[in-house]
Amino acid sequence: MQFQDKTLIEARCINYQQMRNAYADIMENGSVKAAYRTVTNPTNGEIMATNFTGYKRNPSTQIFDAATAKIKSISKDLGMTPQSRAELLDLSKDDDNGDSVKKLKELFG
After folding, report:
1. Other beta carbons less than 10 A from residue 74's beta carbon
2. pLDDT by residue (tens digit) across 29-71?
3. For residue 106, which phi and psi values (nearest 5 degrees)?
4. Confidence class of residue 17 from pLDDT cuts 50, 70 and 90?
5. What span, in angstroms and rounded, lies between the C-alpha atoms of 85 and 91?
6. What angle do CA 71, 74, 77 make, to 5 degrees?
7. Which regions of the chain does DSSP assign to beta strands (E)?
8. pTM over 0.85
């Protein structure tokens, strides 16, 4: 395994953990949250009203989306998707003795 592959695998693992943490937060707190604006009396600080302003997206949904996209991209770079494996096999057909095709087939079944 090359150094670059190790770095990509580590990055994939990190993003996978970020995805799982974000998903756990989404399951615990929901993907959206009601947002309110509190109106206070400027003289004594007493709360006069709490107005509903809409819904706010949980920041974990953005983390989840970004981590998922990075995992998909890294998986493709590592040949972990059907399409990327097919591309690797096509590239290896240029090999004169066919050794690289045999090695790829052993790795990816």
Report:
1. 20
2. 999 999 999 999 999 989 989 999 999 999 999 999 999 999 9
3. -65, -40
4. very high
5. 10
6. 150
7. 32-40, 47-57
8. no
Token pair listed for 17: 């953990």
CA atoms of 52 and 41, how far apart (whole Å):
18
Q: What is the pLDDT of residues 82-100, one digit of tens each?
A: 888 787 777 666 555 556 6
**Burial of residue 76, with CB atoms counted within 10 A of its CB: 0-12 exposed, 13-18 middle, 19 or more buried:** middle
What gap in Å lies between CA 74 and CA 18, rounded to an integer?
A: 14
3-state helix, strand, coil in the chain (%, to 5): 60, 20, 20
Note the residue count of the chain.
Answer: 109
- Name the one residue in this structure whose structure tokens are 């707190």: 29
Domain boundaries along the sequence of the chain: 3-78, 81-109
CB 54 within 8 A of CB 36: no
If one counts every other C-beta atom within 10 angstroms of the C-beta of residue 88, the result is 16
